[in-house]
């Protein structure tokens, strides 16, 4: 193995420090409760937007008369009606 110069050793140490510093920061962010909440919130918002987009597409397709989309809209409306009825029943008890 060839002998390394002092400047090469210093450069290697600095590179290792920078790499470890980045790793510590990544671990700190990964285990941070606040960061976890923010990631979960962003993920939930992304999923909600995707679901809303799909629902909007289905309603648009239903308005053009596509049978499959009409069925999905009818099923969703029935589910919403059933949920509403259950909530009213529970409130009135």
Give the topology.
Elements: H1 6-31, H2 33-63, H3 67-92
Helix pairs in contact: 2-3
Low-confidence stretches: none
Mean pLDDT: 91
What oligomeric state best describes the polypeptide chains here?
single chain
**Range of strand content:** under 5%
User: How many strands, what sense, and barrel or not for the largest sheet?
Assistant: none
InterPro entries: DUF3618 (IPR022062)
Protein name: DUF3618 domain-containing protein
Keywords: Coiled coil
Descriptive report:
With 93 residues, the protein is mostly helical. The protein contains three helices and no strands. It has helices spanning 6-31, 33-63, 67-92. α2 packs across α3 (67-92). The longest helix is centred in the middle third of the chain and has 31 residues, at 33-63. The chain is elongated, with a radius of gyration of 28 Å. The model has no long low-confidence stretch (mean pLDDT 91). Pfam families: DUF3618. This is DUF3618 domain-containing protein. It comes from Varibaculum cambriense. Keywords: Coiled coil. Residues 34-61 form a coiled coil.
């Amino acid at each position: 193995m060839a002998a390394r110069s002092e400047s090469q050793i210093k450069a290697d140490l600095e590179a290792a420090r920078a790499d470890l510093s980045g790793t510590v920061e990544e671990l700190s962010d990964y285990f941070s409760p606040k960061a976890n909440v923010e990631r979960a919130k962003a993920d939930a918002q992304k999923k909600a937007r995707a679901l809303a987009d799909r629902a909007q597409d289905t309603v648009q397709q239903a308005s053009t008369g596509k049978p499959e989309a009409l069925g999905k809209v009818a099923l969703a409306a029935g589910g919403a009606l059933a949920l509403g009825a259950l909530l009213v029943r529970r409130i009135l008890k």
